[in-house]
Write a structure and sequence with these properties.
- 2 copies of one chain form a homodimer.
- Chain A has about 400 residues and is an alpha/beta fold.
- Chain A folds into 2 domains: about 140 residues, Thiolase/Chalcone synthase (Peroxisomal Thiolase, Chain A, domain 1, 3-Layer(aba) Sandwich); about 230 residues, Peroxisomal Thiolase, Chain A, domain 1 (3-Layer(aba) Sandwich), CATH 3.40.47.
- Chain A contains 13 helices and 11 strands.
- Chain A has a 9-stranded mixed beta sheet with strand order 3-2-4-7-1-8-11-10-9, sandwiched between helices. A two-stranded antiparallel ribbon of chain A has the order 5-6.
- Chain A is globular and about 55 Å long.
- Chains A and B meet through helix 2, helix 3, strand 3, helix 4 and helix 5 of A and helix 2, helix 3, strand 3, helix 4 and helix 5 of B.
- Strand 3 of chain A pairs antiparallel with strand 3 of chain B.
Chain lengths: ~400, ~400
């Protein structure tokens, strides 16, 4: 986009992630949006368009047409309301659509939200719904589940690169440590490596504490042209890049199941567009639906060579205070995973980190540039976003 | 969008709408896309981004992440693939996103498709899935179905404006007449008013022949900047406007259940943007999910005053050869309604009409300007598109 305008985030909001049995999609969407709207000091009527990331309102609670529901309950009619879906990357993809809307000059104030309710259905039905993110005819039909797919990646990675079970556990331990300081995290308990190792086996080698939970939750960001951002906030955070790439829907079709090519592609485009490199990133939110996924992300984003991510965890470098703090809100693992909302919640966390607003135990000092990676399915969709304090 | 480029449609394709029990979402998407790609004489690899309208792959066949599925099976990775959903307006909303992508200068060749598989599930499950387009908590929970909602509109309209049952039937008769000449229509049988009047009552006053069917099907359009359109086609069709508006999700919340305010709003914006008025339209595709919906559409789009649409049907003016030919492919009623694909199929029909390519019995002579109206739910979302032969 040659004629693009710089895009800023001028307000953010989120619900706690967890079990919200008293709240429907509309209530969660409203709660997150109001926080963002109040922060930016705007009236809702100033919003010109909304995008809503939602993976499966249909299979989880029977509700499609989720963007119209949100626009209605938020009192925003008649603005265009667009639901966007790319499995667990629905939030990231929605953000990219809002980014295009502002960057192109089409609108001057766009709300981008994500929302999901997952805990009101019984377990096997939720697992079936999530299977909709993989290839139903070529994967799910034969009995694969998501933990199963990521277990295949983990097992192959252990074989290729000598990763140990204990190193996998360190990802979960770190994310629960960060999550313990985040009042909006789904889980706030700390874990030890031993806790993870002793937890129930789900799909060998992955144990239950290698897996993120299913959560209810919503998150929202307000986007405006950077040139107008100071009308809304003293600390605008600019989106330097928001890129998306696709890969095969089925895991078996990939050239290498230890690499997410969609992440690599989106990351290369994002760094190129932002004129930055991985070493410039002060804080990262990556898609740790399973512990192995976080290690793959670190590598595919270019933070280290393939096969060497675990070293960063052995050295403690991905904790707040380390070289590359990762998932400072607890990530998906402890922070929670309300699938359609996750990609937006990652941005909310980065914005608050760059503003210096989070709890001191998990605040990255002087963070200026953040990166988020949001993945759909086993990697068929990836969105990479780079944000910067200006 | 001040800096916008003119957008042209340079290739179109569609499957027949109907029962495709041998074909999955991927097969339907491929079939429609290949037709468009071959028509434009491009290689798939030239496509830079894809949008896919799909209402409920999840509830109908368990498959979400439908855009990634399409990109994968069409061999388009790693281009961004975005599924867009707004119930039965999913196709129209996807078109608008593709339109923004080209108009903004972001990309030079974008594919926009719609796809749905509805006939592989048993009836009550399909009805439940469609209920996801209304408000689950405030409408569906209390037992409303879609025929029920439209029956409320029809009954009120009969009371307010003296519409007769026979006039409703004339909408179906006209659409089946047009559909009888369309080889891709779901139903190709002609109907008489008596056939409609004698058909099974579904939700008083609506009978089964007032209701569109559920179909399987897909459709695709290829978009490019108008300045480059002649690289692909001798008869580019330009999108003069593609506008979207929202209304309350629940019918009971509306100021008037005989008017779709979202249609009115989108139409006013579209005519204003295109610098045209309703009398300039040579052919229209409107969202006739039920016969009453077509009458409302004609009025809300501004083709006649509120309460007077039926006169056009009494006079036969909405047939090919009349003043305002409507649903020349049979509409949803006879052409079929593969919900996520319908908004794109409407555009495919308009493009072929403006090119003068359809069967002679249903070809509108010298048609230059066409309009499509695509509705989600009972009117919470509406998209209006105006296209023109250049």
């Amino acid at each position: 986009m040659d004629n693009k305008r710089e895009v800023a985030i001028v307000g953010v909001g989120s619900t706690p992630f967890g079990e919200h049995w008293q709240k429907g999609l509309r209530d969660l969407a409203l709660e997150a949006s109001l926080e963002a709207v109040e922060e930016a000091g705007i009236r809702g009527k100033e919003i010109q368009e909304i995008y809503v990331g939602n993976m499966s309102g249909g299979m989880f609670v029977g509700q499609e047409h989720v963007a119209a529901l949100a626009a209605d309950f938020l009192g925003l009619n008649p603005v265009p309301a667009i639901r966007v879906e790319a499995a667990c990357a629905s939030g990231g993809v929605a953000l990219r659509q809002g980014y295009i809307s502002i960057a192109s000059g089409l609108y001057d104030l766009v709300a981008v939200g994500g929302v999901e309710k997952m805990t009101d259905v019984e377990g096997t039905k939720a697992t079936s719904a999530l299977a909709g993110a993989m290839d139903m005819e070529w994967e799910a039909y034969f009995g694969t589940t998501f933990p199963g797919l990521y277990a295949l990646m983990a097992r192959r990675y252990m074989y290729e690169y000598g990763l140990t079970r204990e190193q996998l556990a360190k990802v979960a331990v770190k994310n629960h440590f960060h999550g313990s300081f985040n009042p909006k995290a789904h889980f706030r308990n700390k874990l030890t490596v031993e806790d993870v190792e002793k937890s129930t086996l789900v799909a060998d080698p992955l144990r239950v504490f290698d897996c993120c939970p299913m959560s209810d939750g919503a998150a929202c960001v307000l986007l405006a042209p950077a040139e107008k951002a100071r009308n809304y906030t003293d600390t605008p955070i600019v989106i330097e890049a928001c890129t998306q790439a696709s890969d095969t829907l089925s895991l078996f079709d990939r050239r290498d199941i230890c690499t997410l090519d969609a992440t690599r592609e989106a990351a290369q485009q994002a760094f190129s567009q932002a004129k930055l490199s991985p070493k410039d990133i002060d804080v990262a939110e990556v898609h740790d639906c399973f512990t192995i996924a976080e290690l793959l992300a670190i590598e595919d984003l270019g933070f280290c060579e393939k096969g060497r991510a675990a070293e960063l965890y052995d050295e403690g470098q991905t904790y707040v205070g380390g070289k590359l703090p990762v998932n400072t809100d607890g990530g998906l693992k402890a922070g929670g995973h309300a699938v359609g909302a996750t990609g937006i919640k990652q941005i909310v966390e980065l914005v608050r980190q760059l503003r210096g607003e989070v709890e001191k135990e998990r605040q990255v000092k002087d963070a200026e540039i953040g990166l988020a990676q949001n993945v759909g399915g086993s990697g068929a969709t990836a969105v990479v976003t780079i944000v910067r304090r200006k």
